[in-house]
Amino acid sequence: MLAPRAMTDPTPDPTLAGFRSSIDNIDAALVHILAERFRITKAVGDYKAAHQLPASDPAREERQIARLRALAEDAHLDPDFGEKFIRFVINEVIRHHERAKGASA
Fold it and tell me: pTM for this one?
């Protein structure tokens, strides 16, 4: 049985290579954007810890989720996926805030 051309031909398809290059650039931008978001949320966590504020704010979280679902829908992205993604980020932020709160105790 012969292997598919893509697996045996060292010359990449230029169209596919262009798509992949764009994906790689977007992935890099996402990492940098998430790093900046976490730098800011770290400052929020430090502030909350210093002022004995709770690590989470359920009302704000729900507003953010609703806002991000609407943005996802406007962008033609599955709102359920958008919600799963932002909930993952929010949960990680809360974990960091709880750690900061414990460190300041």
Answer: 0.75
> Residue 56's closest CA among 46, 64, 48?
48
Q: Residue 2: its pLDDT value, please?
A: 52
Distance set, CA 4 to CA 9, 13, 16 (Å): 9, 13, 15
Place of tokens 């033609």: 76
* d(C-alpha 27, C-alpha 21), whole Å: 10
Report yes or no: 70 and 82 within 8 Å, Cβ to Cβ.
Answer: no
9 contact partners, CB below 8 Å, separation of at least 6: none
Residue 48 CB coordination number (10 Å): 19
Task: Please determine, looking at this structure, whether the domain spanning 57-105 carries the CATH number 1.20.59.10.
Answer: yes
pLDDT tens digits, 26-73: 999 999 999 999 999 999 999 999 999 999 999 999 999 999 999 999
Query: Residue 43: helix, strand or coil by DSSP?
Result: helix
User: In this structure, are residues 101 and 50 in contact, taking their beta carbons and an 8 Å threshold?
Assistant: no
